[in-house]
Amino acid sequence: MPTVLRIGAYRVVVYPNDHRPAHVHVIGNGCEAAFNLNCPDGPPDPRENFGFALQELTEIQRDIQTNLVLLCIKWGEIHGQP
User: Which of 35, 36, 37, 51 has CA 20 to 30 A from 78's CA?
Assistant: First the structure.
Protein backbone atom coordinates (compact mmCIF):
# COMPACT_ATOMS: atom_id res chain seq x y z
CA MET A 1 0.00 0.00 0.00
CA PRO A 2 1.78 3.12 -1.20
CA THR A 3 1.87 6.11 1.11
CA VAL A 4 0.98 9.03 -1.14
CA LEU A 5 0.97 11.79 1.50
CA ARG A 6 1.71 12.39 5.17
CA ILE A 7 -0.49 14.58 7.32
CA GLY A 8 1.32 15.01 10.61
CA ALA A 9 1.51 11.56 12.19
CA TYR A 10 -0.97 10.10 9.67
CA ARG A 11 -0.26 8.26 6.43
CA VAL A 12 -2.54 8.74 3.45
CA VAL A 13 -2.51 5.56 1.36
CA VAL A 14 -4.04 4.16 -1.81
CA TYR A 15 -4.43 0.40 -1.88
CA PRO A 16 -3.36 -1.00 -5.28
CA ASN A 17 -6.08 -3.68 -5.34
CA ASP A 18 -8.85 -1.33 -4.19
CA HIS A 19 -12.08 -0.33 -5.92
CA ARG A 20 -13.64 2.80 -7.35
CA PRO A 21 -14.64 5.53 -6.70
CA ALA A 22 -11.31 7.26 -6.16
CA HIS A 23 -10.60 7.34 -2.44
CA VAL A 24 -7.80 7.30 0.11
CA HIS A 25 -7.31 5.72 3.50
CA VAL A 26 -5.82 7.71 6.37
CA ILE A 27 -4.02 5.60 8.96
CA GLY A 28 -2.39 6.54 12.24
CA ASN A 29 -2.51 6.24 16.02
CA GLY A 30 -4.49 3.01 15.78
CA CYS A 31 -7.23 4.67 13.69
CA GLU A 32 -8.26 4.51 10.04
CA ALA A 33 -10.65 6.52 7.91
CA ALA A 34 -11.53 6.43 4.21
CA PHE A 35 -12.42 9.50 2.15
CA ASN A 36 -14.00 9.55 -1.30
CA LEU A 37 -12.05 12.15 -3.27
CA ASN A 38 -14.74 13.19 -5.78
CA CYS A 39 -12.03 13.99 -8.32
CA PRO A 40 -11.18 16.35 -9.79
CA ASP A 41 -12.80 19.12 -7.76
CA GLY A 42 -13.93 17.50 -4.52
CA PRO A 43 -14.96 18.05 -1.89
CA PRO A 44 -13.65 14.88 -0.24
CA ASP A 45 -16.29 13.04 1.75
CA PRO A 46 -15.59 10.82 4.75
CA ARG A 47 -16.84 7.34 3.94
CA GLU A 48 -15.68 5.30 6.93
CA ASN A 49 -14.16 6.20 10.27
CA PHE A 50 -12.64 3.78 12.73
CA GLY A 51 -11.45 5.65 15.79
CA PHE A 52 -10.76 9.25 14.78
CA ALA A 53 -12.44 11.94 16.89
CA LEU A 54 -14.73 14.28 14.95
CA GLN A 55 -12.28 17.18 15.27
CA GLU A 56 -9.41 15.04 13.90
CA LEU A 57 -11.59 13.84 11.05
CA THR A 58 -12.54 17.42 10.16
CA GLU A 59 -8.88 18.50 10.15
CA ILE A 60 -7.88 15.51 8.01
CA GLN A 61 -10.71 16.28 5.57
CA ARG A 62 -9.45 19.87 5.27
CA ASP A 63 -5.90 18.65 4.59
CA ILE A 64 -7.15 16.20 1.98
CA GLN A 65 -9.03 19.04 0.25
CA THR A 66 -5.83 21.11 0.28
CA ASN A 67 -3.97 18.23 -1.42
CA LEU A 68 -6.85 17.03 -3.60
CA VAL A 69 -5.11 17.55 -6.95
CA LEU A 70 -2.08 15.56 -5.83
CA LEU A 71 -4.24 12.77 -4.40
CA CYS A 72 -6.32 12.50 -7.58
CA ILE A 73 -3.10 12.28 -9.60
CA LYS A 74 -1.73 9.57 -7.32
CA TRP A 75 -4.98 7.60 -7.53
CA GLY A 76 -4.77 7.85 -11.33
CA GLU A 77 -1.15 6.65 -11.37
CA ILE A 78 -2.12 3.57 -9.36
CA HIS A 79 -5.58 2.77 -10.79
CA GLY A 80 -5.98 4.75 -14.01
CA GLN A 81 -8.18 7.82 -14.28
CA PRO A 82 -10.55 8.41 -11.35
Answer: 51
